[in-house]
Hints:
Number of helices: 4
Radius of gyration: 20 Å
Structural class: alpha+beta
Helix content: 25-40%
Amino acid sequence: MEHYKQIPDHLATKTTLLKIHHRKITEQTKVRGTVSLYTPHGHKTFNLYAIEDAIPIKKRHVEIKHVHLTDKTLSEALYIINKSAKKSRDAKNLAYLLGDHQTTQSQKSRQQNLYKLKDKTLAILAAQGKLIYLGYHEMDDDYLYLYRFGEYTFHIPKQAEGNPPLLNDLSEPISSEQTRKTTLRFREAQALIQRFLKENSKAYK
């Protein structure tokens, strides 16, 4: 089995197959090679599979149920979108280390689009006086202001002003793992935020 320094075009990692090519592997899918890289979590070796060997994933139609737009549901939707953006951040960083530029760009674009939804929504909520300021964190000389909305908290990058309470330094990126149980699906959360922006954007430009 060949060990590659960079991933050939006809091969892909399991994550790239799923995220970019919408294909999956099975126990019978043959490993065509490996690649080793140093990641933030240490030195790791990744199996490589032929794209044509992987099984195409059929797209399923997910029916989005009607969800009432309330502060509670909007807060949960923001939490889901925020964590999903961080998952794209992690996938982007890993793809970059693997030399997979296609995945890097697609995950970067997805991350940015989700953060735009979050930031626009929080800006309107701030104008409506619905955010509760808790303090700020420092990370790499940046200031991340922490706000509470509903049952969840969110960071907004800002320049430090006045004398806000310093919570603590963040030495590691905020985790992408959901630590709270949610009832909304991702698409429902996304649709809810888009509905909120459509109903409120003109009044808070």
